[in-house]
Design goal:
This protein is of the alpha+beta class and 793 residues long. It has 23 helices and 33 strands.
Length: 793
């Protein structure tokens, strides 16, 4: 006996039974397709003709498996619209059902078929004719035996459909109503019974049962397996290519950015010998004789007398020869030049890259080890170079992008590899110092000095320096081309003013601090309660100090490099003092730019010079300013730490933190004092990463989902900085502009898993009178992501 042929669509049970019938009975089961045609937006077919054994049975259904939506099919025969055929969700392919055609339809007559998707709530979505023709299948059965087999097999198709529905209800995408509540119970996240609405002027909670789609989107945040790392979080937020991230159900389209590059520390070294200057010079002479590379002819005898291995001696000889070939030593470096091996190796690599990229002339070294040069030069770890000109940098960048023929064989493999990794900026003005070339060669410090000099080092010295006066040490972290201003303040202000253009055209930075403070003393004007400037300052996010003179007097106790004074353009200042909205918007933008550059504090001062028009000055600080504190950023932007490396005897410090300390010895000690400097430059702290949404905004529901997701996936012991989101990405109410969130608004969102704490302990004090929060709609406050007490958003 021949085994029956397997049926491709097991939902058509009558075919399976027909295949098992003996020959004569099998021939009595006749089944043929009814072709469908889509034309002019209509789906049409022709009914079967009359057949022996009674009127044929016409069946219709899907040609592929259905998911969460069902189908509604409506036939029109001879102008009469027939009752619809409802195909429930999760029906299998070829699970056909009798198509209602009326009690007395004419055999062979044409008919028209209309199809629509059916949502779970009964909402219909009409299907285009072409799409319906591809989705639907219509067949007819002829003969009593065929009808009998269909009746016997129909329950099997329904059983299979129900099994598919049950299986789908165990998944997040397919669960509905009670099944979805069951999934939520597994996660400890019940369905919300209230709706939280947060507006710029307050918040409210109203009874409203969370529907399935909102609940499903919320559970999707809690269900996926996630890697608690910045890379894993970025993948979770943004998804793979062509796929949505974890917040795709909340219609968050813009990609998130995850930043975890921490601010590095700068260092400075100062040789100290409290016993006398002769001891300090003896230490430096010893360092020069034993450790530094001396490329000049007067260094031959020094290197020959060193007790070195043959390999080290040969490598030093190569370094010296390469330095003489690639660099010209001039100015203070012309006599007995000496420098650390790491710095020498970096300069050799830089010279090789210059030659390979077509710059044949050697570079110029202006200063190397200098006992009288202070902390940057006395140990030979730093050097001054003549910087590359804009034309030279442009030519080198063009050669990197278009190398032309292969380099000459004389170019060594290391130089070839370095050139292959160089990434010059599109606009040379974005990197006027040529960091894209110098840093890959091993120069960790590229710091522009005044007088057209470039200070470089293989160590992260940056703008750090330590001044020594008797036994008092004072650390500085200088800005680019400005030794009298801290890097956070100088570099940050310069970047903010560039971004503020052209609104800030005419802004003047008062470089002389003493003269600036004296001008503030004589011209500062007190503000009355009704002065338009008070409202303007507050609208721009600045404090309005009625009498700024006490704060101005206290500036004298601050180190001059930690604050600066700027005056705004005359017309802009006049408009601001008159309270004009456009001018307030410009000032608010400047305040945002200063905050983005991590300046800590700003104090507006109204100037009223004798016989002149009123103007506006801003006192800006890299540390909290008197009377106004930290009104831009609560986080510390600058910091110093000290430690000693004794070379002889013992050394003690009066303080290990702060910009200054005193070094003392009781036994004629000498050694090196190391200062570590910290400058925040728009990066995260150690053990922290930051999340932002560049170019996008979030409504409050999306913000709530993001905060719950971050609370779930951030690694233990790692902080998440959400200040970029809270400061300028959340739209409250009708919008469309983002609203900087206050500390209270930042924490007004519901915990997706509210059962982990008592409600009374988890609700922040309402910002709207009468705010009531239900048991399930808690307002989350206990989170690692919340701003600390007193933080400005």
């Amino acid at each position: 006996m021949t085994a029956p042929t397997p049926v491709e669509t097991p939902a058509a049970a009558h075919r399976v039974m027909a295949d098992h019938l003996p020959g004569p009975l099998r021939a009595a089961v006749q089944e043929e397709p009814v072709p469908l045609a889509a034309a002019d937006g209509r789906l049409t077919g022709r009914l079967p003709g009359a057949a022996a054994g009674g009127r044929p049975l016409v069946l219709a259904g899907p040609a592929r498996d259905l998911a969460e939506r069902g189908l509604r099919l409506t036939a029109t025969v001879a102008g009469a619209v027939q009752p619809p055929l409802l195909v429930p969700a999760y029906a299998e392919a070829d699970a056909l059902r009798p198509l209602p055609l009326g009690a007395d339809w004419p055999p062979g007559a044409p008919f028209e078929l209309a199809a629509a998707w059916l949502d779970g709530d009964g909402t219909a979505h009409p299907l285009p004719a072409a799409e319906a023709a591809d989705l639907l299948r219509v067949r007819h059965l002829a003969g009593t035996t065929a009808r009998l087999l269909y009746v016997l097999g129909a329950p099997k198709a329904e059983i299979r459909r129900t099994a598919r529905q049950i299986a789908a209800s165990r998944t997040l995408a397919g669960a509905r109503s009670g099944a979805l509540d069951g999934l939520g119970a597994e996660l400890g996240a019940p369905r919300f019974a209230e709706r939280l609405t947060v507006r710029p002027d307050g918040a409210a909670v109203e009874p409203a049962r969370e529907d399935d789609e909102e609940y499903r989107a919320r559970l999707a945040v809690l269900r996926p397996w996630a890697v608690p790392s910045p890379q894993g979080l970025a993948g979770l937020l943004n998804g793979a290519a062509g796929e949505g991230g974890a917040l795709a159900r909340f219609a968050v389209a813009a990609p998130f950015g995850v930043e975890d590059s921490a601010n590095g520390l700068a260092m400075a070294f100062r040789v100290v010998a409290p016993g006398g200057e002769a001891d300090r010079l003896a230490v430096l002479d010893r360092v020069r004789a034993v450790h530094l590379v001396q490329p000049g002819p007067d260094g031959d005898a020094v290197h020959a007398d060193r007790p070195q291995s043959a390999d080290r001696r040969a490598r030093d000889a190569q370094l010296r020869a390469a330095l003489r070939t690639g660099w010209t030593f001039a100015d203070r470096a012309a006599v007995r030049p000496a420098l650390a091996r790491g710095l020498a190796a970096a300069l050799v690599r830089l010279a090789a890259c210059r030659r390979a990229l077509g710059l044949a002339a050697p570079g110029t070294v202006l200063r190397v080890q200098d006992p009288a040069g202070g902390s940057r030069y006395e140990l030979g770890v730093g050097a001054d170079l003549t910087p590359l000109t804009a034309a030279e940098l442009t030519a080198l960048a063009a050669r990197v992008r278009n190398p032309g023929p292969n380099p000459a064989p004389a170019v060594d493999p290391e130089t070839r590899a370095l050139i292959a990794e160089l990434r010059p900026p599109a606009d040379p003005a974005d990197d006027p110092d040529g960091r894209w070339l110098l840093t890959p060669c091993g120069l960790a410090t590229v710091h522009r000095l005044a007088g057209d000099r470039l200070f470089v080092s293989h160590l992260p010295l940056h703008g750090m320096a330590v001044d020594l006066d008797a036994d008092l040490l004072r650390a500085r972290y200088a800005a680019r081309q400005d030794e009298g201003t801290h890097a956070v303040l100088g570099d940050g202000l310069a970047a903010a003013l560039r971004a503020w253009a052209p609104d800030g055209a005419g802004t003047v930075v008062l470089a002389d601090r003493a003269a600036a403070v004296q001008r503030l003393r004589t011209e500062a004007q007190q503000l009355g309660a009704g002065d338009p400037a008070v409202a303007a300052f507050r609208a721009a996010g600045l404090p309005a100090v009625a009498n700024p003179l006490p704060a101005v007097e206290q500036l004298a106790v601050l180190p001059a490099e930690l604050y600066t004074v700027i005056t705004l353009p005359g017309q802009l200042g006049t408009d601001l003092l008159a309270g004009r909205a456009e001018a307030v918007g410009k000032l608010r933008r400047l305040v945002g730019l200063l905050r983005d550059q991590w300046l800590v504090s700003a104090l507006p001062v109204v100037l009223a010079p004798a016989g002149g028009a009123r103007g506006l000055a801003l006192v800006l600080g890299a540390v909290p300013l008197p009377q106004v504190g930290t009104n831009l950023n609560r986080r510390r932007a600058v910091g110093f730490r000290w430690q000693t490396v004794p070379l002889r005897g013992s050394l003690t410090l009066s303080a290990t933190t702060g910009p200054g300390t005193a070094v003392r010895t009781a036994d004629g000690g000498a050694g090196v004092v190391v200062a570590l400097g910290y400058a925040r430059r728009r990066r995260t702290d150690p053990y922290e990463f930051s999340v932002d949404l560049p170019g996008g905004t979030l409504d409050h529901r999306q913000y709530e989902a993001l905060m719950n997701l971050l609370d779930r996936v951030h690694p233990a012991g790692i902080a998440v900085d959400t200040s970029p989101i809270r400061r300028g990405r959340v739209v409250l109410g009708a919008g469309p502009d983002p609203t900087p969130l206050s500390p209270e608004q930042s924490r007004l969102y519901r915990d997706y898993r509210p059962g982990r704490g008592r409600l009374a302990d988890r609700v922040f004090k309402p910002i709207t009178a009468g705010l009531q929060v239900g048991v399930r709609a808690t307002v989350r406050v206990d989170t690692y992501l919340k701003p600390r007490q007193g933080e400005k958003p």
